[in-house]
Amino acid sequence: MPYRFEDLKKNCQTEWRAYIEHSFVQQLGDASLAPEAFQHYLKQDYLFLIQFARAFALAAYKSPTLSDLRQAKEGLQAIMDVELDLHISYCKEWGISEEELANLPEARATLAYTRYVLDTGNRGDLLDLHVALSPCMVGYGEIANWLNSRRETVRGKNNPYDAWIAMYESDEFQDAMRAEILWLDERLADVSPSRFDQLNRIFSDATRLEIDFWEMGLKQSD
User: Fold this and answer.
1) Phi and psi torsions of 33, nearest 5°
2) Residues 59 and 129: beta-carbon distance below 8 Å
3) Which member of 71, 110, 118, 190 has the greatest number of CB atoms within 10 A?
4) What residues contact residue 89 under an 8 Å CB cut-off, 6+ apart?
5) Three-state SS for 94?
6) Domains along the chain?
7) Is residue 136 annotated as a catalytic residue, yes or no?
8) pLDDT for res 215
9) Is the dihedral of CA 102, 176, 70, 136 positive or negative?
């Protein structure tokens, strides 16, 4: 039976749920998250996006086909031309200037996850890199959907974090999430059990590092 992305999630269900349903996420959804915690997360997420762009540049280098190369180019372009500009504007709404963002030090959780992704991509192939990125690329879309499934989630003007939820529930992001799952499903279908075990370790490690990223935001740690 061919492997699918869903199998990666099933094999580290405890970690995946701890990531998707983290206290940071819950508090963001019910509007109880401390503004300082969200601001700290926003700053570090800006630094994460820069490294995310580098990961797509690496994906371009690792691409064995023209189709893969185009996908990597589109991902890099989306971050550089759209996401970073939107993030900078969003940070300004929270009182964080572009100058401040440019001079931020990376928190240890940011360093750990982003360098893990880049190191995994450098050591492995394009599939290794995508699996390492998938907790972020897929997870944020699932988080938005999970928040919308909860009765406790506050939407609209009564939640200062509503725009964050709206960003990841958007058709654009949900379509990108589904496209990434489809890409992974097509490639996972051809891997051997031993190769899947390797990929499953990467996915589990990356998911645990995402949990640490939420912890960093919640505790405002450096």
Assistant:
1) -65, 135
2) yes
3) 110
4) none
5) coil
6) 5-219 (1.20.910.10)
7) yes
8) 97
9) positive
